[in-house]
Design a protein that fits this description.
274 residues, 8-stranded parallel β-barrel, TIM Barrel, alpha/beta, 9 helices
């Protein structure tokens, strides 16, 4: 299945500034949306999204697939998703390597999977069914996590095994790598070195906060310098990777987000990696 991700630096589209996108003289190269937040919405929201889509490439980053749950794929949800993709001409769909539902109940969070061979097989089989139904590649993101239910291998081995077993791609969240490296005691640069970077479709960056004992992935702060340095290291190996800035909480004005995105891009440009 062919995959074509927009180039350059993009921004997560949020309700609070969606209309500003249509009037601002500045813009990122592309936008990412959570389809669950836009599906089934008409009127103003639908008109705005059509307006954004007419001007910019848009990719989807889902929240409800729950690829690691023991349930069969929710084909009613996938049908709605497929219709949404068709209406807005969406060709890129990413999700999370996690589970978020069980027996039809949605848990409204992203829970880590056991790092086991059995889970590799289970997830890989579900990936193929989802891809066959949607008729497009599936891209899976490494999540931030604060515990591991069962650990038969390291996280990077788990990710690699799924990418080897399936035809999925990876969405590499650099902030999640950094947060997990601090919380679980590993080297984030070595983690990136161990990934099959040729299977990475695009990159997420976001902010985090420091708690009493651990780092907390909040998506509510500016991207930390340590994460930008890790991004620069990644781009030194894959200069062509598209990069997406996420902000889900404490969302500032659109122009302020654009300034942060330009600063991050400038830091990368200064290292001659993009």
């Amino acid at each position: 299945m062919e995959l074509k991700v927009p180039e350059g630096f993009g921004l997560g589209l949020r309700y609070s500034f969606a209309e500003d996108v249509l009037t601002s003289e500045r813009s990122p190269r592309w936008f990412e949306i959570a389809p669950e937040n836009w599906m089934g919405r008409g009127g103003f929201f639908k008109r705005v999204l059509h307006g954004v889509r007419e001007r910019f490439p848009v990719v989807c980053h889902g929240l409800s697939l729950s690829i690691g749950s023991p349930d069969e794929p929710n084909y009613e949800f996938l049908k709605e998703l497929k219709e949404f993709f068709r209406e807005f001409e969406i060709g890129v769909y990413s999700e999370h390597l996690s589970f978020s539902s069980m027996e039809g109940d949605y848990l409204h969070d992203l829970f880590p999977l056991p790092f086991t061979e059995g889970m590799v097989k289970h997830v890989s089989e579900k990936i193929e069914r989802v891809q066959d139904f949607l008729g497009m590649p599936l891209i899976l993101e490494n999540i931030s996590y604060y515990y591991v239910p069962l650990k038969g291998m390291e996280e990077w081995e788990f990710i690699n095994a799924i990418l080897e077993e399936s035809s999925a791609y990876m969405l590499l969240d650099v902030n999640n790598v950094y947060v997990n490296s601090v919380n679980h005691g590993y080297d984030p640069y070595e983690f990136i070195d161990r990934l099959p970077l040729d299977r990475v479709a695009y990159v997420h960056i976001a902010g985090h906060e420091r708690g009493d004992r651990i780092l907390i992935d909040t998506h509510g702060e500016r991207v930390k310098e340590e994460v930008i340095k890790l991004l620069i290291y990644l781009l030194s190996k894959r200069p062509d990777l598209p990069v997406l800035l996420e902000r889900d909480n404490n969302i500032p004005p659109y122009e302020e987000l654009l300034e942060e995105l330009e600063e991050i891009k400038g830091a990368c440009d200064a290292q001659r990696v993009v």
